[in-house]
Structures are given as C-alpha cells and as structure tokens.
Amino acid sequence: MASRSPKPPAAPGSDRELRADARRNREQVLRTAQRLFAAEGLGVSLDEIARRAGVGPGTVHRHFPSKEALYLAVSIDQLKQLAAEGEALAATGDPAALFTLLSRMMSSGAENAAVKSALLAAEFDVRTAAPDVAADLTSRVADLLGRAHAVGVVRPDLTADEVMALVAGAFAAIRHANAESSPERSARIARLILDGLRPRTTS
C-alpha cells in the first residue's frame, strides 16, 4: 500500500492558515479569560482580556459577542481539558487515578466558581449547551471508577452518577464556606468529600 504523502504546509494567507490562526487566537483568549476571571473576577472587560491575550478587541468580540458567550466557552473548554486529563490518567494504569481526576475537577470548580455562578444566573446549562463534552467527561470518570472498583480503592456501591453529583456538591460546599479564593480551604473540603468515597474500614 502506498504511503500517504504528508500535507504540504499552508501557504501564507491561505484559508487553512487563517483557520489555524483563528483557532490559536480563540484558545489564547479562552486561557487568558479563564486566568483573569479566576484571579480578578468577572468585571474584567472583553477589551482588557484582548489586551492581555495579545489580540485585537475585534478578535475577541468576533468569537465571543457577549460576556455570557465567553463564560460558556470557558466552562466548556474546562470540561474538555478535564476529559483529556481523564484520558491521560487512564493511560497511566494507576488504579487510584480517579481521585486525582476528581481532585482536579473540584479544584477547577473552585477556581472558576464565579463563572459557574454567572452561568447559573443567566440560566445557561453547560450540559445542555455541550452534551457531548459533558458525556465524554462522565465517561472518563466512569472508566476510572471501574478500575478503582476492580482493586477495591473505592466503595463497591459507588456509581458514576453519584460521583458526578458529589463533585457538583463540592462546588456548592466550597461556595457556602466562602473558600473559592482559598486553595487550602477548598482543597480540604475536597479531601473530606473524597474520603467518603473510600471503602469503609471495620475496627
């Protein structure tokens, strides 16, 4: 069978190069927005996000016509990152990788609690807006949970739906404790919740 010849590099100014450039700009805006929202709150303007991302204001407004659209995109991007992390953890073969992923999910939720609250206030549901992405993350959690069950590092009666519900509950607990801005306090709350997933020991 003849080997496939590699794609030639995109010519300067070609549609393919422009599409790649637009994707890079969008990703840079998302990363910058995520960082600024977590560090400085939701009052950061789209123009300031553009300046910090090193792109023109028109680029940001073209991709994200409103703050709500940017909030939603940031949240969906986080789910994609977490799903990718789950896939990478599965490849390590670590039976306790479930706890690593859940810790990261809770940390991500704490860091971006303001964005999630804004979406709730605007009646945006990430699971409805990006069902495939949400389902992919749930699938990664279910896979890691199955591996954890196989070696007995989690409660045998624990289900993937319960795990996802507990992660959502962790966000609420962290907000209730006003711990969003304290990595130490939010991490402690996460540890307390994760400890409840481990097998019960008999004395």
Describe this structure in words.
This protein has 203 residues and is an all-alpha fold. It folds into 2 domains: 54 residues, Arc Repressor Mutant, subunit A; 128 residues, Tetracycline Repressor, domain 2, CATH 1.10.357.10. 72% of the residues lie in helices and 0% in strands. The protein has 10 helices and no strands. The radius of gyration is 20 Å and the shape is globular.
What is the structure about, briefly put?
Residues 45-64 bind DNA. The chain is mostly helical and 203 residues long. Helix content is 72%, strand content 0%.
* Average of the residue pLDDT scores: 84
For this structure, what is the CATH class of the largest domain? Mainly Alpha
Number of strands: 0
Question: What is the SS-derived class?
Answer: mainly alpha
Rg, nearest Å: 20 Å
Succession of helices and strands: HHHHHHHHHH
Organism: Nonomuraea rosea
Pfam families: TetR_C_43 (PF21597), TetR_N (PF00440)
DNA-binding region: 45-64
Domain HTH tetR-type: 23-82
